[in-house]
From TrEMBL:
InterPro entries: Alpha/beta_knot_MTases, tRNA_m1G_MeTrfase_C_sf, tRNA_m1G_MeTrfase_TrmD, tRNA_m1G_MTases_N, tRNA_MeTrfase_TRMD/TRM10. It comes from Dokdonella soli. This is tRNA (guanine-N(1)-)-methyltransferase. Keywords: Cytoplasm, Methyltransferase, S-adenosyl-L-methionine, Transferase, tRNA processing. The gene is trmD. Residues 3-235 form the tRNA methyltransferase TRMD/TRM10-type domain. Belongs to the RNA methyltransferase TrmD family. The keyword Acyltransferase does not apply. It catalyses: guanosine(37) in tRNA + S-adenosyl-L-methionine = N(1)-methylguanosine(37) in tRNA + S-adenosyl-L-homocysteine + H(+). S-adenosyl-L-methionine binds at residues 123, 143-148. Homodimer.
Length: 249
């Protein structure tokens, strides 16, 4: 069935509007991806709909409270029946987007994309009460070594990267395979019409019709770019037999 992603966030509108456009939006319309948002304020216990409070120990800033988050999570589980499932990949994984988490990369994205259900928590202010993280969160994920004011952008990044890998989402599955990182290398350069422009010509090999030559050119470009821009990636890349044969031609 379709993958399900629930997002617990103080700014559901942001997630909803991101999830309406482009590849992810189409995937939802076609029923290949299910996305729902949950606002902890809807689970507050006071009339002010409070979901955050001051920091124990003093200092500036607010912290997201345990109870509204716990109730929001319970509602997600009730709505999705996530407790009932037995298969490992079907069990919902609760992810807190956090600068202190494991850094997201394409391998991690591919791993998450194979799951049936993700529950994403976006923080705000100073973050989330540590007790919620200890008891309810399976994993913390960071989108990079910088600090955002909220986890919504980070959650939208996860939704986008994971969503486009769902089966049937991209018109051409090969397009995800040739993207940067999927084979450990950066992608090759791309060109479209016109063939000749004031700012240069399209490399002749691409209009030659020689498919083997085109594959070889693209691979060499990928390798060259990776070497120049991200030599760190080359340490980990294992070229398969077919690829090495192609280079030797
Ligand atoms: N005090 C926290 C710390 O230093 O670890 C940072 C809180 S930050 C201002 C507010 C929220 O933004 C966090 O709760 C988290 O959800 C989100 N956030 C900030 N930077 C992030 C990053 N690099 N990756 C993922 N989420 C991030």
């Amino acid at each position: 069935g379709a993958m399900r992603i629930d997002v617990i966030t103080l700014f559901p509108d942001f997630i909803e509007s991101c999830a309406r456009i482009g590849v992810v939006g189409r995937a939802r319309e076609r029923g290949l991806l299910q996305i729902a948002t949950w606002n902890p304020r809807d689970f507050a216990s006071d009339n002010y709909r409070s979901a955050d409070d001051r920091c124990y120990g003093g200092g500036p800033g607010m912290v997201m409270m345990v109870d509204p988050l716990r109730k929001a999570l319970a509602s997600v589980r009730a709505a999705s029946g996530s407790e009932a499932k037995a298969e490992a990949n079907a069990e919902a994984k609760v992810i807190y987007l956090s600068p202190q988490g494991t850094r997201l990369d394409q391998a991690k994205v591919a791993e998450l994309a194979r799951r049936d259900h993700l529950i994403l928590l976006s923080g705000r202010y100073e973050g989330v009460d540590e007790r919620f993280l200890e008891h309810a969160v399976d994993e913390e994920l960071s989108i990079g070594d910088y600090v955002l004011s909220g986890g919504e952008l980070a959650a939208a990044i996860v939704i986008d990267a994971v969503g486009r890998l769902q089966e049937g989402v991209l018109n051409d599955a090969a397009s995800a395979e040739q993207d940067s990182f999927s084979n450990g290398l950066l992608d090759c350069p791309h060109y479209t019409r016109p063939e000749h422009d004031d700012w240069g010509d399209v490399p002749a090999v691409l209009t030659s019709g020689d498919h083997a030559a085109i594959r070889r050119w693209r691979l060499k470009q990928s390798l060259g770019r990776t070497w120049l821009r991200r030599p760190d990636l080359l340490d980990r890349v294992e070229l398969d037999k077919k690829t090495r044969a192609l280079l030797a031609e």
